Amino acid sequence: MPSLKDLKNRIASVKSTQKITAAMKMVAASKLRRAQEQAEAGRPYADRMERMLTGLAAVAKTAGQGPKLIAGTGKTDVHLLLVITSDRGLAGAFNATVLRETRKQIRELQGRGKTVKLFTVGRKGRDNLRRDFANLIVESVVDIGRPKLGFADANGIADRILAMFDAGDFDVCSVVYNKFKSAISQIITVQQLVPVALPAVAEDTASNIVYEFEPSEEQILAELLPRNLAIQIYKALLESAASEQGARMTAMDNATRNAGDMIKRLTLVYNRTRQAYITKELIEIISGAEAV
User: Which GO terms describe its cellular component (predicted)?
Assistant: First the structure.
């Protein structure tokens, strides 16, 4: 049985941890509000841009034209996965879900005979994937969004991906990230970025509607496709940032509650142990008095 001093020290330690987790919960909650507002504000523009370019790309592809970002390389042998995680932990299953989906994608692609390359964003993803897939990591970025996440961060990542694509380092690029739904729910998302995915609906619509463009479709696409890549990456970064803060707030709330429950249990054990010591001392005193 632990001594009273040991129990008292453990209760004090858990109380100290509870204060830390409660403070982290409050910080995450304040950051979540701003991150959620940014993510929700960025969705309409990114979705509309993607929808507009998808329709425009479908028209150009139907006409047998279009830049390389639409037509692709003509092969699907090499896949680049852009994996977005966080730089810090203590966020529940936020990073684990992204890494689990990434490993699933790697196994499926390699099972089909494809070559897989990894572009990691975030220290947690880089360090975890390095254990098993160090030879697949070709690029890594950390400390994104410090002190504040901006479009320049996404644009820098997009420029690297475009340089790799122009150099023929991959055929298909997809991003894996957590999409924010609520503070307690994030949706794991895999989105193809390069070449632009053309849904069947968009192709059917493009074949029935005739558009006139000024300037030409090629000029519009050449200007907007690289920008759209940066916008889609920026949207993924915003969604991931909001998801991280939501997951951290939930995890720290659970940790604070668990610490409270542990303090109650330890306090109960402490009181019972103290009563046992007092009872034992009383018995010894009474026994001694009777012996005299």
Answer: plasma membrane; proton-transporting ATP synthase complex
Report the largest interatomic distance among the alpha carbons of the chain, rounded to a whole angstrom: 114
CB-count exposure of residue 203 (10 Å: 0-12, 13-18, 19+)? middle
Phi, psi (deg, nearest 5) at residue 137: -80, 120
Q: Under a CB-based contact definition with an 8 Å cutoff, are residues 169 and 161 in contact?
A: no
Contact between 229 and 193 (Cβ < 8 Å): yes
Residue 288 within a domain: no
Structural domain contains residue 45: yes
- Asked if the structure places residue 34 within a domain, the reply is yes
The first and second tokens of residue 267, run together, are 């306090």
Q: How many domains does the chain have?
A: 1
For residue 130, what are the domain limits? 25-199+208-250
Average pLDDT over residues 150-169: 93
The pLDDT score that the predictor gives to residue 46 is 86
Edge-to-edge order in the sheet of strand 137-141: 137-141, 115-121, 78-84, 172-182, 185-194
Identify whether the C-beta of residue 81 lies closer than 8 Å to the C-beta of residue 119: yes
Q: Please report, for the domain that includes residue 145, its CATH number.
A: 3.40.1380.10
Residue 278 lies inside a defined structural domain of this protein: no
Looking at the DSSP bridge assignments, the partners of residue 214 are: none
Q: Which of 24-33, 41-50, 78-87 has the lowest mean pLDDT?
A: 41-50
